[in-house]
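in:
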């Protein structure tokens, strides 16, 4: 029965950490890095919408893959902190041999020889939240001795003891281990928000790269069209020069215009290819090689845009509700509040209640050494010669005579205990069991307690700093929202103004060409008008790019960029 109850006690100890509500194991699976696998050959053309570019970026972008690890690492940190409350199963084994020289009338022989084997097993651990420590232990001992006064050899001892140390002031509810569990739990939540924050930045970066590529593609087309126009003008001027209508100076002006357009076209090509690499790196980065020749073709049209009704109050409300930076700052305030409570607890005196309760058992075989005292005896008649009233005769008396063995040694009185180690616990948890219990208290206080008081003061300052940072962040978010709303409103108006300029510049260029055909203008004037048209077209392209970038900026400032782009955090979080 005792062994079954001991097993129950050990099971209870193993179950104690369950009070800490340990989260499920979310260890990251083994993955193979993309660069180590089979890589596709990036050649040809790839038509891509913004939605598809973002989806591909979430799958392939190495910046996203890097930040995916942070929440998993934070979860393991939280798991490690909870591990402080896991019970430790321990066992010990010792063997000792002792030979002690003696000179005593109570001990036969010149030395005492003892052989002792001891062992123990049990559970020791820390109770979650309370900060109490417990120890459930089973101990056993076997000792053989040549001592004449010991009744048992070998002698078996066993005991089962449950002990607990209960902090009442310092360490109660706010011990180091449980405080770390709470802080690391908030740290895991912070890591989740940091992943969301960094994913927002990556999505915004992909959107900016996408619309930049679309803009550079349009600028390249404008540059190519301008080069074609200048070459046509050069051909027309050469023809006029050959018939003597214009001078050689005008031909030179046309040639200079062609050279200038060729220079601009070279720059436009370079910017277009750079924009290609930027977007490919964002959406297919692991597969990009020095020899890649893939061309991404944006399918979303920049000129397709929506005019928004802008409300700064509504945008600010969304930002305060959805911005991950605010959630991070709020969790950091909670962490410092926990640290302050821990510091206040550590300032208290140490007062621990300690207690232990258990049972002891004894068994063993009769010591073969001859006893000095006692032993088995029996009553025997003794007849002695005697004279009774002067008449010779015999007298019979009865005496206790020691019982000797075959070797002539006294036989010991048997002890009423079991003979094997397994019988030492027969009386555990019964009325006949040999009980042992202790109780007490420990108290200590550091004189001066500068460490405790300094810890509280530091925690106060850190909390004040965290709250100030939160207020500053709220102020900065308001600034971001105001700027984003203002930029988007300006971009919407800018598109209309840029379109009016483009139409006007196109009409002026057409009119200047007609004047040239009638001999009322010069190639230089036509080139100037054409340059104005190119600038107006580039301005319109830039206005559309600014608009789309401003939309992404406002969504980022509001914290809605992921949901507006159809990104689901739970699907984006697992490692690829």
């Amino acid at each position: 029965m005792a062994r079954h109850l001991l097993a129950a006690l050990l099971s209870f100890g193993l179950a104690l950490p369950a009070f800490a509500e340990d989260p499920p194991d979310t260890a990251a699976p083994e993955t193979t890095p993309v660069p180590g696998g089979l890589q596709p050959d990036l050649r040809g053309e790839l038509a891509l919408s913004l939605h598809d570019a973002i989806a591909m970026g979430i799958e392939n972008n190495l910046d996203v893959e890097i930040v995916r690890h942070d929440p998993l690492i934070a979860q393991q940190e939280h798991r490690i902190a909870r591990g402080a409350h896991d019970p430790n199963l321990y066992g010990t084994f010792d063997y000792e041999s002792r030979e002690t020289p003696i000179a005593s009338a109570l001990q036969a022989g010149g030395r005492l020889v003892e052989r002792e084997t001891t062992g123990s097993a049990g559970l020791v651990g820390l109770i979650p939240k309370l900060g109490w420590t417990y120890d459930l232990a089973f101990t056993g001992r076997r000792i053989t001795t040549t001592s004449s006064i010991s009744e048992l050899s070998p002698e078996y001892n066993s005991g089962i003891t449950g002990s607990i140390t209960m902090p009442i002031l310092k360490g109660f509810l706010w011990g180091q281990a449980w405080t770390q569990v709470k802080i690391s739990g908030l740290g895991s939540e912070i890591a989740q928000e940091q992943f969301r924050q960094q994913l927002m930045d990556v999505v915004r970066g992909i959107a900016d790269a996408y619309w930049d590529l679309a803009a550079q593609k349009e600028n390249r087309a404008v540059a190519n069209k301008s080069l074609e126009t200048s070459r046509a003008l050069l051909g027309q001027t050469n023809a006029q020069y050959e018939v003597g209508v214009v001078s050689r100076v005008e031909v030179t002006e046309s040639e200079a215009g062609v050279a200038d357009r060729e220079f601009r076209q070279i720059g436009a090509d370079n910017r277009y290819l750079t924009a290609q690499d930027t977007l490919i790196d964002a959406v297919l980065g692991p597969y990009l090689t020095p020899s890649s020749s893939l061309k991404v073709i944006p399918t979303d049209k920049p000129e397709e845009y929506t005019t928004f009704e802008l409300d700064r109050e509504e945008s600010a409300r969304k930002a305060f509700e959805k911005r991950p930076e605010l959630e991070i700052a709020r969790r950091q305030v909670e962490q410092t509040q926990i640290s302050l409570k821990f510091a206040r607890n550590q300032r208290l005196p140490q007062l621990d209640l300690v207690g232990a309760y258990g049972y002891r058992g004894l068994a063993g075989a009769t010591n073969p050494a001859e006893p000095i005292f006692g032993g088995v005896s029996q009553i025997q008649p003794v007849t002695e010669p005697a004279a009774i009233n002067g008449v010779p005769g015999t007298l019979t008396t009865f005496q206790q005579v020691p019982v000797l063995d075959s070797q002539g040694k006294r036989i010991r009185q048997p002890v009423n205990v079991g003979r094997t180690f397994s019988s030492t616990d027969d009386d555990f948890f019964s009325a006949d069991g040999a009980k042992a219990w202790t109780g007490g208290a420990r108290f200590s206080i550091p004189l001066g307690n500068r460490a405790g008081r300094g810890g509280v003061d530091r925690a106060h300052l850190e909390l004040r700093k965290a709250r100030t940072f939160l207020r500053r962040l709220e102020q900065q978010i308001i600034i971001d929202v105001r700027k984003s709303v203002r930029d988007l409103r300006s971009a919407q108006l800018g598109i209309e103004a840029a379109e009016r300029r483009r139409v006007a510049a196109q009409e002026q260029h057409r009119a200047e060409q007609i004047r040239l055909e009638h001999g009322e203008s010069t190639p230089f004037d036509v080139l100037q008008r054409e340059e104005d048209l190119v600038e107006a077209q580039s301005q319109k392209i830039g206005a559309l790019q600014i608009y789309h970038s401003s939309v992404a900026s406002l969504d980022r400032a509001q914290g809605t960029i992921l949901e507006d782009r159809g990104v689901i955090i739970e699907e984006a979080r697992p490692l690829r």
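note: The domain at 178-344+450-572 is CATH 1.20.1600.10 (Outer membrane efflux proteins (OEP)).
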